[in-house]
Every structure is written in structure tokens, then in C-alpha cells.
Amino acid sequence: xxxxxxxxxxxxxxxxxxxxxxxxxxxxxxxxxxxxxxxxxxxxxxxxxxxxxxxxxxxxxxxxxxxxxxxxxxxxxxxxxxxxxxxxxxxxxxxxxxxxxxxxxxxxxxxxxxxxxxxx
Length: 120
Fold this sequence. Notes:
By secondary structure, this protein is mainly β. The chain has one domain: Thrombin, subunit H (Beta Barrel). Helices cover 10% and strands 52% of the residues.
């Protein structure tokens, strides 16, 4: 698969990169907590966080792991559960762009660990 410079986030586009890098497969996956496997995926993530005035704040975060349905990030910014934001995930092959919803947030000594679900 030849990837373009900017690729919309879809389950298929994420699966393709995971397949190329890690041999991604859901075959034999069995985890009662998650519907899809997660893969370690360090990299830079750009976020555009909406504020109360309708403007967007641009911030950077660190990707921790990736699945076809979402990404875990580490952010210095506190993101509200249920918030919808724009996202770009930069990788050597391409940049994935789309929208995501904040589904989980845990604070730790390194910042905010946030689970984002892609809006597919």
C-alpha cells in the first residue's frame, strides 16, 4: 500500500500500518477488557482542543499505543472525558488526520494518560 502524505484516520488505514510494522492480526486475540489489540506506538500527536469560545488550542502530545479504533497518549494538557477534538498522528510513512473523542483519562507523575477513540 502506497500511503499519501495525509491520510484520513480509518480502521483500515491504521490496520495497514500496524500490519506492515508488526504483522498486525486480530486472529487469536482474546481480552475481555478490549475489543482490539493495542500496539506500542511512540510518536508525536498533534491535537486541536476546542475551548469555550469556539477557538482551538494547538498542543503536542506523545503517542503511547495504537489500535484501529483509538490511540493512547500522554499529554501535559488536561482533556475532558467526552470532548471531541481534531488529531494528527505523524509517522515516517504518513500523517493520519481525523477526529477523536476523549474516552479515558488518568493522571500520573508524567502527565495525563488519555485514551482517544477515533471517530470513524
